[in-house]
Amino acid sequence: MHAVLQSLQAIGLIPVVKLSDPGKALPLMKALTAGGIPTAEITFRAEGAEKAIAAIAEAMPDALVGAGTVITPAQADAALKAGAKYIVTPGFDREIIEWCAARNVPILPGCSSATDVQLAARLGLSAVKFFPAEAAGGIPMLKALSGPFASMRFVPTGGIGPGNLRDYLALPGVLACGGSWMAPSPLLEAGDWEAIEALADEAVRAMLHMRLVHVGVNCRPNEADDTARLFSRMLGARPDETAVSYFVGKEIEVMKDIGRGDMGHLAFSVTDVDRAERYFASKGFAFDPASRKVDAKGRTTFLYFKEPAGGFAVHLVRE
Predict the structure, then answer these.
(1) SS3 for 154?
(2) Fewest C-beta atoms under 10 Å: which of 25, 95, 312, 319?
């Protein structure tokens, strides 16, 4: 998979933006990035898209600015010269796909049927845009397409929002989700960058679905048994012993020895630990790389923050 597509997968969200005023491109990208989404698909539905892309690419070279609603090779060429790092088309256009392939430019062509996806696969693509997602059958359709095209990755766009975002991202074939709700036109027209930053942050947090799942209690070896029994009486749950601890229900882990944190540890579940790590790192948090655990596919399943909070060590675990 192209490195740009890998980065989009790590972000998980792609704001789709119709920007009529190129002068607003840079503050928009800064707001999205501050909210945890360092990418935007600037659509060619509005005049000035080329200038907007150029403004972002020049001032923020690390941002993943893409060009959307590209319907001709000439637009793809203009977008690329302006600094776009990926191209998105509303439909399947072989000419544009081959133009991008010849230049090693990642492209997400709009696909809504098995025929479209099969043609994309035959042209060597590893990811496509599933559009219009809800109107084209939504999650049931994506599940059906993922059967014969197990190696293809999809970016559903169209009808996606906070209410169904996690359902789409839970599908193993979904690379990221696109949508306009993160930077709606009224806020763009008003230049309300604070509100757009808040929407971006809310979108990331909705995607991650961070929840406290258990509290770890540090005990000395001669205290762990009694402490576990005490919690068992409180919660009416039988202790489940492991090599290093007792779990009482799902909420309490009694450590058999003094573990991380002066007080113990807090475990939070997230839908994707790697995406959570990227998001929190953008907010200035650091992690302990030695604590990382990965599954057979190389996805992080467990990771400690470097710094404790209130005497508690804090770790993330995949939901």
Answers:
(1) strand
(2) 95
Rounded CA-CA distance 128/6 in Å is: 13
Active site residues: 41, 129
Residue linked to tokens 């892309």: 53
- Determine the 3-state secondary structure of 45 from DSSP: coil
Neighbours of 229 (CB within 10 A): 15
**Which among 311, 88, 36, 5 is positioned nearest to 196, based on CA atoms?**
36
- For residue 159, the 8-state DSSP code is S
Question: How many C-beta neighbours within 10 Å does residue 234 have?
Answer: 11
Distance CA 293, CA 279 (A): 18
> Which residue bears the tokens 């989404």?
37
Contact between residue 319 and residue 270 where contact means Cβ atoms under 8 Å apart: yes
Between 221 and 63, the more confident residue is 63
User: And the tokens for 148?
Assistant: 């014969």
pLDDT digits over 81-95, tens only? 999 999 999 999 999
Given a contact cutoff of 8 angstroms between Cβ atoms, the answer to whether 88 and 41 are in contact is yes
- Amino acid identity of residue 54, one-letter, is A
Rounded distance between C-alpha atoms, residue 260 and residue 217, angstroms: 10
Cα dihedral value 306, 310, 311, 312, nearest 10: -60
Question: Token digits for 232?
Answer: 């068992």
Residue 1 is encoded by which pair of tokens?
Answer: 């998979």
Gap between the terminal Cα atoms of the chain: 25
Rg for the chain, CA atoms, rounded: 23
160-202 pLDDT, tens per residue?
A: 999 999 999 999 999 999 999 999 999 999 999 999 999 999 9
Are residues 162 and 145 in contact, defined by beta-carbon separation less than 8 angstroms? no
Q: What is the pLDDT of residues 256-272, one digit of tens each?
A: 999 899 999 999 999 99
Q: For the chain, what percent of residues have pLDDT higher than 70? A: 100
The pTM score is 0.93
